[in-house]
């Protein structure tokens, strides 16, 4: 096993080289950052086109995956062949206020792209390891039936590409991750994502779907330190992270990246844990999950009326709920110490007050039913 510390001695310093001549990869999602490397299906809507800009020019400053960046349902179509292209890219980006970190990523973001197929699809996976990478990388899809989930077939040296094809036999919401030894290190550094294999007919429609993943980072420096932080092998082995993150960075799913909905709408969160080590007690403060697809089984009836759902590393869940009352709802792991280490998100609900369901008492007398 080879272990590299967080070095800047190869002149990268956070920059990304040009993947010259790389084939374009068409974003099937909203692609808020210029359509950089995602995946596309083999349908008529997808096409190849030249990559107009270098990765350096098109990469966002942040590795944070927007929670709204997921493609629409594919349940309405028949099974087909789908092509998935993943670029493994190592890049320095913001971890927290005043702190950066050398992430290892799929497609430059954490988590990697939300891959969406349907049961019966044939999926052609290409993994391209960027030429400026220091490490080998690969991808293991938990949705795969086959050796290593594709991990064996995709171990790629820097500047090379590998691939495999699988048939999506089992519907569900599955984690994918890099599995090159030491896999925990690759995952901690950001190499995980979700693939949704929709069941026949899909899931019940909702107004908003969101993509959220939890992970933890192990830095030599204590939580809150400034500058470019370095990874800690000892803390990783001892499972003592400094940072807990939703979508890659401390407090990432707040402000511009908060989740949004309106009173009366239904929300679904596809929630996964990259980890590598910590189980999440996922909870939305002030909401109740009307439906919870426990362990991300989409073919079992969902649990109903759930407060907190436990999600293991390498596991996922889908939760649905209707928002009835305006306000800001916090996404947390109810192991709440982790909130003080970066693990906080926000769901902002706008609309009319709904006092029949919730109202704050403005005056002491109201508690006694008195009027003034
Ligand atoms: Cu890797």
Care to give the gist of this entry?
The chain is mainly β.
Q: Provide the low-confidence segments as ranges.
A: 1-57
Q: Enumerate the distinct ligands.
A: copper (II) ion
What oligomeric state do these chains adopt? single chain
Order of SSEs: EHEEEEEEEHEEEHEEEEEEEEEE
Total discrete domains: 2
CATH-assigned fold name of the largest domain? Immunoglobulin-like
Q: Output the number of helix runs.
A: 3
Structural class, judged by helices and strands?
mainly beta
Q: Strand-residue fraction?
A: 25-35%
Largest sheet: 6 strands, mixed
Fraction of residues in helix = under 10%
Report the principal-axis shape: globular
- How many strands in all? 21
CATH class group of the largest domain: Mainly Beta
User: Whole-Å distance between the termini?
Assistant: 74 Å
Average the pLDDT over all residues and give the rounded result: 86
């Amino acid at each position: 096993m080879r272990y590299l510390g967080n070095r800047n001695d190869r002149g990268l310093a956070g920059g990304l080289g040009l993947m010259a001549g790389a084939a374009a990869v068409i974003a099937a999602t909203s692609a808020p950052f210029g359509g950089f490397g995602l995946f596309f299906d083999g349908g008529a809507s997808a096409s190849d086109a030249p990559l107009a800009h270098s990765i350096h020019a098109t990469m966002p400053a942040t590795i944070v995956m927007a929670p709204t960046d997921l493609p629409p349902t594919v349940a309405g179509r028949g099974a087909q062949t789908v092509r998935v292209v993943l670029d493994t890219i190592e890049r320095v980006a913001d971890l927290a206020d005043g702190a950066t970190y050398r992430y290892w990523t799929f497609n430059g973001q954490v988590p990697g792209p939300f891959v969406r197929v349907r049961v019966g699809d044939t999926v052609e996976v290409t993994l391209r390891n960027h030429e400026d990478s220091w490490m080998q990388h690969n991808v293991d899809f938990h949705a795969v039936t086959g050796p290593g989930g594709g991990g064996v077939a995709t171990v790629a040296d820097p500047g090379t590409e590998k691939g495999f094809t699988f048939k999506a036999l089992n519907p569900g919401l599955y984690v994918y991750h890099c599995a090159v030894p030491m896999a925990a290190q690759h995952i901690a550094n950001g190499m995980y994502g979700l693939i949704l294999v929709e069941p026949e007919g899909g899931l019940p429609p909702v107004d908003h779907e969101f993509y959220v993943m939890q992970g933890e980072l192990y830095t030599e420096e204590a939580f809150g330190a400034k500058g470019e932080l370095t990874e800690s092998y000892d803390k990783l082995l001892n499972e003592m992270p400094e940072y807990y993150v939703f979508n890659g960075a401390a407090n990432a799913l707040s402000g511009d990246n908060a989740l949004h909905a309106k009173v009366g709408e239904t929300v679904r969160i596809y929630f996964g844990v990259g980890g590598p080590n910590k189980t999440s007690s996922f909870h939305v403060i002030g909401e109740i999950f009307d439906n919870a697809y426990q362990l991300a089984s989409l073919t079992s009836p969902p649990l109903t009326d759930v407060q907190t759902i436990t999600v293991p590393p390498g596991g996922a869940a889908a939760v649905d709920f209707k928002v009835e009352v305006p306000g800001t709802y916090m996404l947390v792991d109810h192991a709440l110490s982790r909130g003080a280490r970066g693990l906080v998100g926000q769901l902002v609900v706008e609309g009319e007050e709904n006092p029949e369901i919730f109202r704050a008492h403005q005056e002491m007398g109201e508690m006694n039913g008195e009027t003034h």
